[in-house]
Here is the input.
Amino acid sequence: MTNWDEFGFNTRAVRAGQVRSEEGEHSETIFPTSSFVFESAAQAAARFSHKEQGNIYSRFTNPTVRNFEQRLATLEGGERCMATASGMAAIFSTCLGLLKAGDHIVASQSIFGSTVILLNNILAKFDVKTTFVKLTDLDSWQAAIQPNTKFLFLETPSNPLTEVADIGALANLAHANDCLLVVDNCFCTPALQKPLSLGADLVVHSATKFLDGQGRCMGGAVVGSEKLVGGDIFAVLRSGGSTMSPFNAWVFLKGLETLDLRMQKHCDNAEALAQWLVKQELIERIYYPGLPSHSQYDLALRQQSRFGSLVSFEVKGGQEAAWHVIDSTRIMSITANLGDTKTTITHPATTTHGRITAEQRHAAGINDGLIRISVGLENVEDLQADLLRGFK
Here is the structure.
């Protein structure tokens, strides 16, 4: 078996995890089958009892999905990856696997709106409570930890304000209090940031975003140790069925092959666009960790290899002005998705964070004049001209 740790990132992104069939195919194979045939009743029994490794049923064992899992695991530096049907399924499976009634979570208040709903509304039904704190305030994290706290959860950089958390400091805090640290690495991907190497215990992904890179499929993943991911979290997938389809896994494999190339270009364009936005009079504030004016610029410089694709900014005039800018674009796609080769633009207060309360949005710093852009791979001059139409 190849030790992929000996190879560079791009080599692993192209080749890790592939096992060729007897047909000798060069590209990875899609296995669109629900079940697998055993050589004998004895082998079936051995597989089901885990005495023998092998395929059983595609809800929890499929070669194409396993190929994606092994490739992403080695890119993140983890022992085990579990692929899921969506990014939210990855987070939900992690919660169901690690938590029980009476447990407690400390989470950043600067996380995706659907994650807030999951933690605050759905898990609360099962007596799992969540305390939300300011992402960058270490003292708030410390003060929020209780004897029954099981893990700390965050996104870094955050969506949509691109705040950057000190992963190493939060890992030390979590472990000193017998907690786990779970980091959503969706926006940087392992091409730009490695939370596990900084002390995190688990990394979650929406593969729908940059891992795919072209907005084609839904998927998610959890990466970490064999004990954590391969134990109680995998048990949720096996019985709960939040399964990634073989076709989607194959699409994500193709996405991983170009991940580093795409992320570098995303960063080039985002940095150029952010520097241009600084000069625009209509804008009150810009959120991009690659600008020296960003409050966590130095931390991002140490913790990430580049600054990512998300650029957010506030325009003068509130929601009316923000909607005017968005509606004036002709190239950018008005959609709440991100991580695409095509630049996307959205109004977070009424889309991605529209289901949380106004108080929660205010606490997270999401104002009515805020616009979020996920910068794609187009010519950056065309993106600037597209925004300038609305600024005028």
